[in-house]
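Quick one - first record:
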Amino acid sequence: MEKIVLASASPRRKELLERADLKFTVVPSSGEEEIGGGTPDQVVENLSRSKAFSVAEELKREKEVKLVIGADTIVAFQNHILGKPVDEQDAFDTLTRLSGNSHQVYTGVTVLIRKWDAWEEHTFSERTDVHFYSVSEEEIRDYICTGEPMDKAGSYGIQGRFGVYVKGIEGDYNNVVGLPVGRLFYEMKKIGIDMRGMGR
């Protein structure tokens, strides 16, 4: 049986693929996430590539694995990358900057396709612009107290409590959640791969 592997521990990415009726297994990458230099789209593509190849190396002897999907998401404000907050003050500073402004969310996706004993790489990134209403200091502190922002790039999750402050988005909503599923399926169809037909 041909298997698809998601090289990510993100429950949000897992849920998005499940909603797309895709059959897959999860094998999180054990590699360290290191944000190198470059533009936000280059950075996030490199991160997704690193995750995918790390897991592909672990699974190289499992011949039934045909696709490995690596993904990573970053938030950028005025071309400055905002990672996961190091503490509550960092989360507060980040959300204060985003309040009343627009920022960009980039998700990089790398799909590795097994070709005999090698992997063929397909990497792309998707950008979505997110616009926030103004948020008060008290509202930001209340949100931080929930603990929700502490494991999220940009210190918020659009599908969570902070979503009520979103004024609008330009682009793919799922991309902000963590995976541009429509673009993923489109890119695979372009090279003749129907992911829904695998793993069944």
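second record:
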Amino acid sequence: MKTIQIVFSPTGGTQKTADLLLESWAAPHEIIDLSDPQVDFSALPIEKEDAVLLAVPSFGGRVPEPAAQRMARLRGNGARCVLLCVYGNRAYEDTLAELYDLAQNSGFIPVAAVAAVAEHSILRQYAAGRPDAQDAAQLRAFSAQTFSRIQEGNFTGPLSLPGNRPYKNSGGSGMVPKAGSTCVRCSLCAENCPTRAIPKDHPQTTDKAACISCMRCVGLCPHQARQLNGMMLSAAALALKKACSVRKENELFL
């Protein structure tokens, strides 16, 4: 049996949460990066005996579109999996329901699910520093419970998860990072963009239609050259203040 992480984590929050959730699982862990557009996801060797974690952030209450498209090409072959949805303390809405459907359609058997909070990838003041020590303790407890469910031989399912079908309409945040005068055209952002929205020969530009506002380019830039519009950030922070200011807790579904 292999333990496999299948993770979409542009800025690291989902990956950090996934690592905590896997602490009680059999090691070592193989990592499949759903943010890498060069991987042939249909050719990955996943076997029925494997233990799989499918982990994505919630983007506007949905699974990020490129993650969903790449997950649809996976072949689960009856492997049992745990679902992980990570959100920035606002709401995850239909993300877990959609992730469940994607997993089943790709041939996985979802046996447990977790909704967890990590620092908001755009508005960093919300859920700042999370997962924190309290989250880590809770996720480690979830780790043991989810691995026990993976090992059970009599799971019949299905899981009962929050969310709506049909899912809510997907839509980007509308906030596209732009390069400023400190951009040296190193193309680090272009090389690591999950949707190839930044051309390598013109990394100071961004394809607005392809950008999913994941903020990887902002986090990676060694010169802090890529930024969001300050007025738009302030307006978004104000709009989400009420929803994001009260601490949300992690949830386990068995």
